[in-house]
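User: Structure with 4'-deoxy-4'-aminopyridoxal-5'-phosphate, tokens only please.
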Amino acid sequence: MNTAATPPTPPGTGRRVSARIAAISESATLSVDARAKALRAAGRPVIGFGAGEPDFPTPGYITEAAAEACRDPRYHRYTPAGGLPELRAAIAGKTRRDSGYEVDASQVLVTNGGKQAIHEAFAALLDPGDEVIVPAPYWTTYPESIRLAGGVPVPVVADETSGYRVSVEQLEAARTENTRMLVFVSPSNPTGAVHSRAEVEAIGRWAAGHGLWVMADEIYEHLVYGDAEFTSMPVVVPELRDRCVVVNGVAKTYAMTGWRVGWVVGPRDVIRAAANLQSHATSNVSNVAQVAALAAVSGDLEAVAAMREAFDRRRRTIVRMLNEIDGVECPEPEGAFYAYPSVKALLGRELRGKRPKTSAELAELILDEAEVAVVPGEAFGTPGYLRLSYALGDEDLAEGVSRLQSLLGEARA
Ligand code: PMP
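Assistant:
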């Protein structure tokens, strides 16, 4: 009701975007990548460590399956919103094969990438005020997706001294009566940290013991190096199975980021609820992309083994070269394709006439002065760090880190 003291808002000057959506910021990783690509399109020799995507093309047997699907009228029509039945069955089979988690097709929802799987799982599980513990550094999408679903993200920070691995004690300290869920991602984006089987088991037991739900993001399951091993939480903590959703997709394993096929595996009632949501939001994922994903998950893991070898080589190069820079400290990542060095010792130093005080300012200066794109730690809830994806060609990688070495080598107190 308007009173004399508050005149009515003149038409056309009121709220335009909802408060809920206005509170979301653009994905920082996508925006760094977009800026790097725009500079490159304008002729600048920018080297991008921003995007989390393999530089390899999608394997030929996958693109061939997609090409055939394009010509098959069956795939020119709507198909079940929750995914092609044969793909859901194949994902259940692949899950059994790769992580040992026994599920059937009715527990699988095929989504438009892992991102939609995450979004729909939070939407299906959270009510307003529900707290979700999110180990930090976290992948930039989780908190936004949690907030959109009405939940409250509760970051728990682990730094380089623990190899960016949270402990049960830290998680317990963050737990309240409103805690509903834990996000668990190993191998991790942005740090590349991989939790040992014992750690996964301890964290899973803790969550199960307190009746919490867990979202286990397993999208980097096949990208582990050296002695590190991937562990699926609901496999080692079976009592969690009724309260666990597992997110995965073809993007990272088969160099298929642009195809947009992911999935969530979980208890049938949650999968049904998330599928109902999807039936109104997007309906089925593109059939052609689903057939490509079917070829991917039904095939062997040879392609990812070859990519893993290249990533491992680049990982060792980037970590060695970053640690040669005075003021940069980079623990060895054991999985995914990211290095997450601390640059705290460089902040406040003089560099090309400037004194960057935050990692965001430093990342900007690096792009301007060295034409190298990196994502600042601010995007992952931990200022003072940079994320570099090493999923780029060996030559570009060496050239890009050399430029960083020369530029950052000039920093003076
Ligand atoms: N989870 C994690 C941890 C990721 O890093 C990504 C991609 N950056 C995704 C999920 C989503 O991948 P997509 O939507 O491309 O399948």
